[in-house]
Every structure is written in C-alpha cells, then in structure tokens.
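Researcher: I've been going back and forth with a colleague about how TLP18.3/Psb32/MOLO-1 phosphatase superfamily protein might be arranged in three dimensions. Neither of us has a model we trust, so I'd like an independent prediction. The organism is Pigmentiphaga kullae, in case that matters for your notes. Sequence below.
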Amino acid sequence: MAIKRFLKHLATTRRAAHQAFPAQALDRIEQTIREVESRHDGQIRFVVEAALDMGPLWQQQSPRERALEVFALQGVWDTPANNGILLYVLMADHAVEIVCDRGIHACEGAGTWEAVCRGIQEAFGHGRYEQGVVDGIKSLGESLARHYPGAARVNTLPDRPQIM
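Model: Here is an independent structure prediction for TLP18.3/Psb32/MOLO-1 phosphatase superfamily protein. You can compare it with whatever you and your colleague have in mind.
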C-alpha cells in the first residue's frame, strides 16, 4: 500500500466533505437533481465519500472499484429503465467517478462520462465544488433527456446528496 495514499485517507475526515459541500450547497445540488429529473425518465444519485475505511484502503481498492460498490449499495442499478447514474466523489483521492446502468451506458458510452468527470475535476481544482457538481449533473441530465425524454414516472432514488 502506498503510504502517501494511506496518510491522505487517514487525514481526510467527513468534515472535509462538509466543508466542500455545506448544507446550502447540498440543498442546491438536490434542487438541481430535482429540476433535471423533471425533463427525463432517468435517475441521478450524488454521493460524496471523505475517505475509504482501512480495510478497502489496505486492499488497495481504487476509486472506480469503490464507486461500483456504492452504485450497488445505493440501488442505482435498480431503476425501471436501467438508466440510473451515480456521480461519486472520493475526497481523499480527489477522484470523480460516474457509474451508469447498462441502459444509459449503451446509449452514450465511456467518453461522455469521462468528459463530465474532467469538467467536474477542473472546477474542483479551482475550489468550485458545488458549481462543478451542478454543471456535471446538468450534463448528465442532458444525456438522459436525449435518450429518455419526458418526466420520470417514479422517483426511485433519493434526490438528496449523501455524504458517507
């Protein structure tokens, strides 16, 4: 295990996540998700995790592997049209991951999601955490609206962002 990564995860607490995403920012992100989901039949879930627990860190779990795990834990895979999207941030690694259910992933492909991640990371690099996420969610919403137009029939995932 890389000692530098271990120390970063040890030093990054939930407080760091709450500083980057205070309550007002979470409210605005939730509102953005609600607005975006009113234009398509997809589901977007935003989760921030400060750092990995020691077990996964010791096993050298990558941010991508953790995002896939969170995708399953949050039930993002269980949307009626297989069009759920997880936007996952791992603060300690400065990582942004997008995991899409098979329906929407087949429509867009990895290049679209990588571009959205780069845009969010660029905003984060300038300290614009909320704006980066809001812009990313809007981009994800545009993709969902292209392939799944119309309002969601059922809101199957919480719109409220989660800090783990």
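Researcher: What would you highlight for our discussion?
Model: I'd start with this: The domain at 3-163 is CATH 3.10.310.50 (Diaminopimelate Epimerase; Chain A, domain 1). After that, consider the following. The mean pLDDT is 95.
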